[in-house]
Amino acid sequence: FFFKQKTAYEIAQRLVGSEMCIRDSSKADPKDGYKDDIIHYGQKIFIQTNPYAFPKTLYLKSIPVSPSICAKISRQQECSVQAKASYDNVWMIWHVDPNVRFTTKSEPVPVNEPIVIEHCATAHYLASDAFEYKNDFGNELEVSVHSYATLNKSQALALEKTGKLTRDLPTKFQNDQNIWCFLSSNDPSTDYKVVEPGKMTHEDLVRIVKQKLLEKGAYGIRGLARVFKSMDENGNHKLDPDDFRWGLYNYGVTITKEEAKLVVDVCDRDKDGSVDFNEFMRFLRGDLTEERKKYIQMAYNKLDKTQDGKVTLEDIASIYDASCHPDVKTGKKKPEDVFKEFMSQWDTQVVDGIVTIDEFMDYYKDVSASIDRDDYFVEMMKSAWKLSQSFILQL
Predict the structure, then answer these.
(1) Of 291, 181, 280, nearest to 238 (Cα)?
(2) Rounded Cα–Cα distance for residues 109 and 265 (Å)
(3) What's the pLDDT tens digit per position in 308-340?
(4) d(Cα 258, Cα 276) in Å, to the nearest integer?
(5) Residue 25 to residues 40, 106, 130, 138, 294: CA-CA distances in angstroms?
(6) How far apart, in whole angstroms, are the C-alpha atoms of residue 366 and residue 281?
(7) pTM exceeds 0.70, yes or no
(8) So what's the pLDDT on residue 12?
(9) Does residue 150 surpass a pLDDT of 90?
(10) pLDDT over 90 percentage in the chain
(11) Three-class DSSP labels, the chain
(12) Sign of the CA dihedral with 51 first, then 138, 61, and 260 last
């Protein structure tokens, strides 16, 4: 966060002969009166991910505890990151000693010194207690937002009388759980070559959006297509970049204006500044392999008993086995819920009670996007539509 694009050793060398203090350009309030790039005690700041670690800017965030939102283990105020900057992302750094916070306010924050980090919206402090939390990096300690204050009396009246305190500053010391420190290094052995981060491409953006949609289940991509179609008032399958962003946002996926521009660059066939959302959906779905197309066609042929290219919803309901759906196999949903959701997916092109081969193929393009392996997809199709070996050999 604070030392962007620098190693700890490079920072120490750069600051030799000058004050060792935290530097950053990520101010929450550009008009806060500080003209330098040094972080000061009591200054409102954003704490964000380093672009060298992740191509998209993510801001440290916290919101008040609720029955559904809290830290996983401690059940205290949750601490997370989000792409959208808001007041929930604003923090202030204070001196660890509450008795000198008033006098040290506006002074530069030194490195290698203990500090406390206050969340502005809730007035609680960033904390880490001895709760082991398993994540992609192994076992780490849970980070939350909670004030671990000492239990002694604060002697506030005595401090106010001597002018060392204002009513908005606490007088109790915070326990070790709230104490943090930004470290630098003077050891050359800790230096390493910083690799230039690559810029986010539309492929990166599609992968991130796709991952979030698949977390909603196999129908995630199909649900997004419906959102876009409902926003397409003139029926030309195009949206302006802002509407495109809000369509994603309403479906629980947040992208920035810069990321929306990436989509425009690849999904604007007519170069009129709008997003062809069908083209974007094609990027999300990917192309069906010939093996998958073959079994989708087999399933449709079994449903189309008259071979006239028309399958009714009753035909589908009479054969489909929801117990073989990916979300049922992984335990995300019950078979009856999947069946109801499955039957609600049809007639997306023409509301006539008839499912065409194009509609059937489009549906399985969405399902296919959540299944990596062809053999797993084939087994799912065989089970869901009861494609026996004898039936397959007849075709």
Answers:
(1) 280
(2) 42
(3) 777 887 777 778 887 877 778 778 788 888 877
(4) 17
(5) 12, 16, 32, 31, 56
(6) 9
(7) no
(8) 44
(9) no
(10) 13
(11) CCCCCCCHHHHHHHCCCCCCECECCCECCCCCCCCCCECECCCEEECECCCCCCCCCCEEEECCCCCCCCCCCCCCEEEEEECCCCHHHEEEEEECCHHHHHHHCCCECECCCCEEEEECCCCEEEEEEEEEEEECCEEEEEEEECCCECCCCCCHHHHHHCCCCCCCCCCCCECHHHCECCCCCCCHHHCCCCCCCCCCCHHHHHHHHHHHHHCCCCCHHHHHHHHHHHHCCCCCCEECHHHHHHHHHHCCCCCCHHHHHHHHHHHCCCCCCCEEHHHHHHHHHCCCCHHHHHHHHHHHHHHCCCCCCCEEHHHHHHHCCHHHCHHHHCCCCCHHHHHHHHHCCCCCCCCCCEECHHHHHHHHHHHHCCCCCHHHHHHHHHHHCCCCHHHHHHC
(12) positive
Per-residue confidence (pLDDT) for residue 41, from 0 to 100: 92
Q: How many whole angstroms separate alpha carbon 47 and alpha carbon 27?
A: 9
Contact assessment for residue 93 and residue 116, using Cβ atoms and an 8 Å cutoff: yes
The backbone torsions φ and ψ at residue 92, rounded to the nearest 5 degrees and listed phi first, read -135, 145
pLDDT band, residue 1 (cuts 50/70/90) = very low
Q: Mean pLDDT, to the nearest integer, of 200-228? A: 75
Mean pLDDT of 106-114: 89
CB-based contact 94:115 (threshold 8 Å): yes
Number of residues assigned to the chain: 395
Ramachandran class of 307: left when φ > 0, alpha when ψ lies in -120 to 50, beta otherwise: left
- Spell out the residues 6+ positions from residue 7 whose beta carbon is closer than 8 angstroms to its own: 185, 190, 191, 192, 194
Q: What is the pLDDT of residue 13?
A: 42
